[in-house]
Design brief:
The complex is a heterodimer of chains A (about 300) and B (about 325).
Chain A: E1 2-4, E2 22-27, E3 33-39, E4 45-48, H1 64-70, E5 72-76, H2 95-108, E6 114-119, H3 120-133, E7 138-144, H4 156-163, H5 180-198, H6 205-217, H7 220-227, H8 235-243, E8 249-254, H9 262-272, E9 276-280, H10 286-289, H11 291-304
Parallel strand pairs in A: 4-5, 4-6, 6-7, 7-8, 8-9
Antiparallel strand pairs in A: 2-3, 3-5
Chain B: E1 2-6, E2 35-41, E3 44-51, E4 57-60, H1 76-82, E5 84-88, H2 107-120, E6 126-131, H3 133-144, E7 149-155, H4 175-178, H5 191-196, H6 198-210, H7 217-227, H8 232-239, H9 259-264, E8 271-276, H10 284-294, E9 297-301, H11 308-311, H12 313-328
Parallel strand pairs in B: 4-5, 4-6, 6-7, 7-8, 8-9
Antiparallel strand pairs in B: 2-3, 3-5
Helix pairs in contact in B: 2-3, 6-7
Classes of the chains: A alpha/beta (about 300), B alpha/beta (about 325).
Amino acid sequence: MILDAPPRALDRDSGRARLPDRSGFAVAEDGVRLAYDVYGAGDPTIVLLPSAPIIHSRQWKAQVPYLARHFRVVTYDGRGNGRSDRPTDPAAYADDRMTADIGTILQATGTDRAVLVGLCIDGVWRSIRLAADQPERVLGIVAFAPGVPRLAPAQPHYVSSSATFHDELPSPEGWAKMNAGYWRRDYPDFARFFFSEMTTEPHSTKAIEDAAGWATDGSVEAMLAESEVSVLFDREAVEATCRAVSCPMLLVHGTEDRCQSIERAHRLADLTGAPLVVVEGANHMIPGRHPILANLLIRRFVDSLPRAAR
Amino acid sequence: MVSSLKLSTAEPSRSIGRADTARPREQSRARYPDETGFVERDGVRVYWERYGDGSPTILLMPTWSVIHSRHWKLQIPTLARWFRVVTFDGRGNGQSDRPQVSAAYAGTEFASDAAAVLDATGTNRAVVCGLSMGAGYAARLAIEHPDRVLGVVMFGESIPYEAESDDAGEADPDPEFESPRRTDEWFRYNAHFWRRDWRGFAEWFAGDRIFSELHSTKPVEDSVGWFLETDPETMIIVEREPYMRLPSEWEPGPPTAGRAARYLRQIRCPLLMVHGTEDRVTSIAHARRLGAWLGARMVEVDGGGHSQVGRDPVLANLLIRDFVHGLQGTRP
C-alpha cells in the first residue's frame, strides 16, 4: 500500500498551524483599508502590531497559535503590505496615521481595550503613543526590541545609509543596499540582506526566508513613500510621551540587536520604570527567532496584569 | 529592573575519543533517561537508556556508527510521554566501546546487542525503529530474535539487499574504499579521505547527503558533532565488515546476489517503511522495490530527504505513534 504523506502546503498560506476565526477589513480615516484577523475568544485581547510596510501580519506566525489558546488575538496587515492598501503618498505613512490605525483596528474588532505587543518602531513607539494618548484602551505593552526614536542615537549603518539613500549607487554592498535606486532594481536582494543582518543567530535560515518573503509580498513604492516620513517629535517630546505611559510594560531586547541599540531599551526602562529582559546573544527578530521565549514572556506578562483592569 | 536571559548556547561536541575518555559537553536535553546502564558481550560494553514506563516499549536502534543514540533526540521526549522508550549507542560511538576488530561490527552483533539491552531493561518485546543502516539492524533483530519484536518501522532504509554478494570484506578488500581516489562527491567515501579530513567527510555526508532539505543547519551541526565523537580509524574498521553478512547456516554455499533479499523476507511482523522521495543516500526507487518485496506498508514523504527522524520529527513521531496504535488495535 502506498500512502501519501500529509500534503505539503500547496501555497504559502495553506499550511498555517491555526487559521483565523474571523477576518475583515477596517477602514482608516483617510480611506486606507486595513486587513485584520481575529483568533480565539479568550480574555484579554492581545493585538500583535505589524512592522509595516516592510513586512505584514505573518511576522507573528509563531505567536498566534500559542497565544490564541489562552487569549483573544488580533493581528492586522499594516498599510503598505499584506492584504491592506498600499498608498504611495508619504502622508499616508505619517506617525499619526500609523498610530491611529491601532484604534481603527480595536474599533473594527469590537475591542474596548487590549494588550499591545510590538517589535521595533512600528510596534513599540506607536503602542507608547496610543497608551499615552488613550490610556483607557491599553491594558499593557510588551515591547520587543523597543525602537523609540531619539532616546539614543540611531545605529551607525542607518546613519551612513540614509546619507546615501537617494544617491545613484551602481552596485552597492552591505548597508549601502539601503538605497532607493537599489530597492527599485533588486528589492528581493535587499530584503534578504536586511533580514540576514537582523537575524544573525545560528540556524536562522527559515526565519530569514520567511521575513524576506513577507518583505517581497509588499511594495517598493510603499517602502519609498514611508521612507520620506520621519517622527516629528523631538527628544523632549518623545521622553514626555514615554513618561506618560501608565499601563504595565515589559521590555525585551537582545544584546546583538543590529536595528535598535540596547541603549534605547535602557533609556525607555528608565523613563517608564518598566522591567527590561535582556536576551544575551539575540538579535532584533526575537518573536520570530526565539518564539518560545517570546510567547512565554507575553503570556506571563498578560497573566500578571490585574484581573480587574481587564 | 533589568534581568538577563541567556539563550541555549551549548557547544557542539567535538572531541574525538574512546568511550573511556572524557566526553564532550553535551547539549541540554528535553528529557533525561529514567535509567541507564551497560550490557557487555564478548568484552564489548554497550550503553543503553530507558525513558518512561508506558506500553509497549519502543526500541530505537543504532545506525551506522558515525552517529549515536542522540540521533533519536527528537523522538524520545514525545514517544516517552506515550510509551516506554529504550535506546542504545551502537558499538563504535557514544558511550559504547569501539572494538578495533571488524568482526565486532557485523550486523548480527548489533542485533545481539539489542537483544541484550532488551534483557537488561526487562523488556520482553518491543516495537523496533531504525534509521538508514539502523533499518537493517532492526531487520536483523526481527529475523534473528522474532519473539522480541512486535513490529518494525524503517526510516530511510539503507539495506544493500540487491548487492551481488553479502560477504565481501576484510579478506577481499574493496579497492574503491581502500585506495586513494578523487575527493569529490561519493569518492569521499574512502579510507584515505576519512583519515585526512574526517570533519570534511562528516560535513559533506550530513549536509549534502542526509539533510538535503532547506533549513537543516541545526541537524547538520548536531550530526557533525556526533561524527566527531568517533574517529576515522574506528569507522574504517567498521566499514571492512560487510554490513549484510548473513549467518553461515542461512543458505549454505557461497554468498550470491539475491541472498540478502531472500533473507529479509523472513520478517514476519508488521513493517512500516518511511522514505523521502528526495533521499540522497538511498533512492526512493530502491525503497519502493524493497517495500514491495517485503509487503511493507509504505509512506513516501514528498520532498523528504534521508532522515525524517531528524528533519521531520513531528511527522516521524506521529507515524510511529499511529503504527503502534495500529498494532494494539486502537484508533489513534
